[in-house]
Design a protein that fits this description.
This protein is an alpha+beta fold. It is built from 10 helices and 8 strands. The chain has helices at about 5-15, 80-90, 95-100, 105, 115-120, 125-130, 155-175, 180-190, 190-200, 290-300, and strands spanning about 35-40, 40-45, 135-140, 220-230, 240-250, 255-260, 265-280, 285. Strand 1 and strand 2 (about 40-45) form a beta hairpin. The termini are far apart. The model is unreliable at about 25-55, about 60-105 and about 205-215 (pLDDT under 50).
Length: about 300
Amino acid sequence: MLPSRQRLSRFRAAAAAAGFLKAAAPRSSYAINARCHHHHHDHRLLSAATPPTATTRSPSALPLPLLPRFPATPTNFLCASALSSSTSSSSSSSPSSSSSSSDPAVVVPVGGLADLAAIRAALPPKVADLLKEFASLVTIPVQWGEMDSYRHLNNVHYLRYFESGRIAFFDQLVAPRLDPAAYAAFMAGPAAAAETSSSSSSSSSSSSSSSSSSPASSVGIILKSASINYRAPVVYPDTVTVGVCVEAVGKDRFVQRFAAVGHRAGRVVADGDAVVVTFDYARGVKADVPEAVRSVLLELAGEK
């Protein structure tokens, strides 16, 4: 094994020959931080603070490896095209509207927080036609890790997409029709029940003052059942748009219908329905749908 000084000299000579350093540069000007591995010994070279000179070849100037390229399909560039069209339209709009469009969740029509009109406008014509009867939409890019060993989207993720569509339905259509505080309490579910129970336990009110019915803030939604029909496989890269509507509203439940459309296939890849029950998280039992929420759901049931 060579002495450390000899190895350091050889390393400097090799670095200078490669063009990273000036050959005659003093030791204090070396901008190097490297590891030399030999017989499991770790030798660190001191990194000086002196910036590289004009003749120093910066590592950033080295050629980078080529990245894989996907076909320039409308699916791959859905978000980019929507972003460019939204930003161009917002630049010509009034200052008040341009401030609201600066939020990426609003500009890019992907995800449950995107604007519903922007989602529908960005859809390919065939996809938009298949989902025209659904009041709520959410567009979800397919992730590489969601595929399984059969090289298509795993069946579990369809239900996850439907879950995202179910929540987007409430955020897009129910929230604007309810008082913000009432909607937040209705969607909080167990969290609201925990606050209710903690506040009631800390209070010193008599037992006669407590009523048999729980506060409205402890009533939320819970999934009772879900069914799904798998119509076609989905393969990365792709984008899926999920449509959701209300089919029936009962005393303590309602039924939502779903459809997922793949952009590459231009067809329904899965559909199904779910029964959602209103649940009193403070008492652990079913509860009636709050009257304000029920009236909104009845209104939306006619907007399929």
